[in-house]
Design brief:
Blueprint lengths: L20 H21 L11 H7 L11 H14 L19 H13 L10 H17 L7 E5 L2 H16 L4 H4 L9 E6 L5 H8 L7 E4 L9 H14 L2 E8 L11 H11 L2 E5 L14 H4 L6 E4 L1 H4 L7 E5 L2 H8 L32 H36 L3 E7 L2 E6 L11 H18 L5 E5 L2 E7 L7 H22 L3
Parallel strand pairs: 2-3, 2-4, 4-5, 5-6
Antiparallel strand pairs: 1-7, 6-7, 8-9, 9-11, 10-11
Helix pairs in contact: 1-3, 4-14, 5-14, 6-13, 14-16, 15-16
Length: about 500
């Protein structure tokens, strides 16, 4: 028990997590030196470790420490673990998933943001950070030729950015007070969402999480280029209207996950206006290619959307994680997310127009994601991004040409910076009976390539064909890297084929 008249014991001295300024400076220099060495040696490292989850887990099977430890050996140990046992999406030959190679200035921006640690939920907690985020959102809108007076904010990634658009659509188009009553009204028809069969799985998560259920989704067929078919879309909408259901949202895609397909966005926008539906575009991957002068009319149609999702940690090459949601009408975004509890003391000056981002998105406490994007945009500028995005697209086109010229490879698709193809032994070309075997062969080929560490690809299923998928959102990739890929795939494919079909 405490002695009478005395308060609880308070320990003196530095807190266990404090660092002396000189020690912090020394450790910071050491970390920067090691990062510099890592980036310099990156092209010579394996893209991914060929290790099991169990073996990696065993490396850190440590007891929870009872007493603290010095900072320097902890940082050295953490760096060693990560450099020796990670998949490097910054590697010039990482082409598996749509994750951009992280810009060094973005990494330094994250360090600054973490050190200052502003909370971008309320303006008063992050005056400069909030204004930097607002400017970053406007610049992103400018890149897309989208209205710069739109509502928008930065979120964790593409799924969350798409969720914001989904919820704004539900709030704007549901013919009842959906925030209070929920997403289903038993006296009315069911809310319906329309999207192509190539759409990312976020739409299923959104329908599930936000009360509609995945059965509310109408999956619209695609054409020979894997783009949504507007005729099929219209047919589905008409059928649901006759049934008494409530169509409210069409999701177009600007750069699909599997092939980089861009839906005919202008046609979809016109159809949405005709039926008074919300038009949302998932441009998480491909949206930023709209900055290119050679961007297609389909892609430029992104400007007609009611809401757009894009991912700066994809084709703006910002470090993970950061997505961006844009909504044409800022009031709709505010109406979707704003609540004002008494414990949030708000002093409003109509002349100042300070924004509190917790009223425009799902998070209250929000990190300073904007700084790394803002710095990247300033360092590269519009012209720099046009060059890097254009280069990635041209590299993918070069790969498609190289694959088409190779007798043992079959080119399947090329759009934006995604090329898909597969390995086909010469004696199996044109054989319909060989399809199940070719799927198995290419599946095992992909596993082998990922384990080998020379390249990192992923897969797509295209009309029941298992394809090797190469997606280039990497400013470090060169034409030499691309030229090396076909030979590697053919060599490894022949080895696996010989194992599966011994002669």
């Amino acid at each position: 028990m405490e002695e009478q008249g005395k308060g609880p014991e308070v320990h003196g001295g530095a807190a266990p997590l404090e660092l002396d300024p000189e020690e912090f400076r020394e450790l910071g220099y050491r970390v920067i030196d090691r990062i510099t060495e890592f980036l310099k040696s990156l092209p010579s490292k394996p893209v991914a470790p060929n290790e099991s989850a169990t073996s990696i887990r065993n490396l850190i099977s440590l007891p929870f420490p009872h007493e603290g430890q010095p900072a320097r050996p902890l940082l050295e140990h953490a760096f060693d673990l990560l450099v020796d046992h990670s998949t490097f999406n910054s590697h010039p030959r990482f082409w598996g998933y749509i994750t951009g190679s992280p810009a060094p200035i973005g990494a330094l921006g994250d360090l600054i943001a973490a050190a200052l640690n502003p909370n971008l939920g309320k303006w008063i907690l992050s005056p400069m950070g909030t204004e930097i985020e607002g400017q970053t959102v406007r610049w992103i809108a400018q890149m897309l030729a989208y209205p710069t007076d739109c509502g928008g904010l930065l979120v964790s990634g593409g799924s969350m950015a798409n969720f914001v658009g989904f919820l704004a659509a539900r709030r704007a188009k549901a013919p009842w007070p959906v925030r209070a009553a929920g997403a289903v009204d038993p006296k009315r028809g069911r809310l319906r969402v329309y999207t192509s069969t190539e759409t990312h799985l976020w739409v299923q998560k959104a329908a599930d999480l936000f009360g509609l259920g995945t059965d509310s989704i109408r999956w619209i067929s695609t054409d020979e280029r894997f783009r949504m078919d507007p005729v099929a879309l219209r047919k589905n909408i008409e059928e649901d209207l006759r049934r008494g259901d409530l169509p409210f949202l069409v999701v177009g895609t600007a750069g699909s996950v599997s092939t980089g397909a861009v839906d005919p966005l202008p046609e979809l926008a016109a159809l949405c206006k005709e039926y008074s539906l919300w038009f949302h575009v998932d441009g998480a991957y491909g949206g930023f290619a709209a900055v290119l002068p050679e961007a297609s009319a389909d892609l430029r149609g992104i400007v007609e959307a009611d809401s757009v999702a894009v991912d700066p940690h994809k084709w703006l090459y910002a470090p993970l994680e950061v997505g961006c949601a844009l909504v044409r009408d800022p009031k709709t975004l505010h109406d979707t997310f704003s609540y004002r509890p008494q414990y949030y003391h708000l002093v409003e000056d109509p002349d100042e127009k300070a924004i509190n981002y917790y009223e425009y998105g799902p998070q209250n406490a929000r990190g300073f994601r904007a700084l790394k994007v803002w710095l990247c945009l300033r360092q590269a500028g519009r012209e720099g991004y046009k060059r890097m995005i254009g280069d990635n697209i041209r590299l993918a086109e070069s790969l498609y040409e190289l694959v088409s010229e190779c007798g043992e490879l079959e080119a399947l698709s090329n759009s934006l910076s995604i090329t898909t193809f597969r390995y086909v032994p010469q004696d199996l070309k044109g054989s319909a009976d060989a399809e199940p075997y070719l799927n198995r062969l290419n599946s095992e080929l992909l596993t082998s390539l990922q384990a080998g560490g020379e390249v990192f690809l992923s897969n797509a299923m295209l009309r029941d064909k298992f394809a090797l998928r190469t997606c280039i959102v990497n400013f470090r990739t060169s034409i030499e890297d691309i030229r090396a890929l076909p030979e590697l795939v053919v060599r490894e494919g022949a080895r696996i084929d010989a194992t599966l079909r011994p002669r």
